[in-house]
Amino acid sequence: MTLSYPFPALPRFEVEALDIKTAYYAAGVANGRPLVLLHGMSTSADSFRELMHELAADHWLLAPDIPGFGYSSNTTPYHVPHLVEWLAAFQEALDLPEMVMVGHSFGGLLATQFALTYPEAVSQMVLVAPALLRAESYPELVKRVGFSLGLVNLGSAISQSKVWVKRQIKAPFFDPDKQDESVWQRRLQDYDLSRASANVLKATAFHSVRPSLSQIADPVCLIWGEDDPVVPVADADELAQLLLDVRVHKLAECGHIPILEQRQAVAAIVREFVQ
Known about the structure:
Helices cover 35% and strands 18% of the residues. By secondary structure, it is of the alpha/beta class.
């Protein structure tokens, strides 16, 4: 069956995890090994809507809104170790078995640190343009990501007009004109619901996983857009040297959002890797 826009919304549920109201989306049928999908900054778990529809026939998929985004409550302190404990509590609350972690951008950093902290809870990782090496290039990260999203510094965000925001939500894409109008409506809503973007910048800037990457024994699949303007594709080659068991896929004519720009290619890569 060929899927087409507008994609229907997935059912949304809520659970308490680490005393944080956590919203999450679910698709597929519980079959023993869930794929848990973690979104990037200034978006929500709804950004995986298309990919979850693509994979639902054969996989069990769960996508939580990271605290401070979407319909999940915010939390403090806002740093990666605390979010790792939130994710562990989410797994416990839903009584999930060993998971395949799928993380995009900041979600890739969170998935990786979770795998380092709780290796027994993870069997494989799919990391899509993960922000794993960004702590080392923090000033550039602020310029490329922070200001493109309207953040004037690490502690606050400026209020922008809808015209400005509409321009900025398209900046990470290689060819935004190819996206359905419903995508922009959803991304505008995600932007409105994002309360922790500045905190994510801080968390990313001051949390380095580079020294620990060689400790990851599980297979890792890296997916990157060759034209990523946010997290450069050169990071993929560097990560390939740091990780023990890694496969790298680079997608042509694709920016920072492969899960939307090349959703069918990403779905095919995930199916093959997870099997």
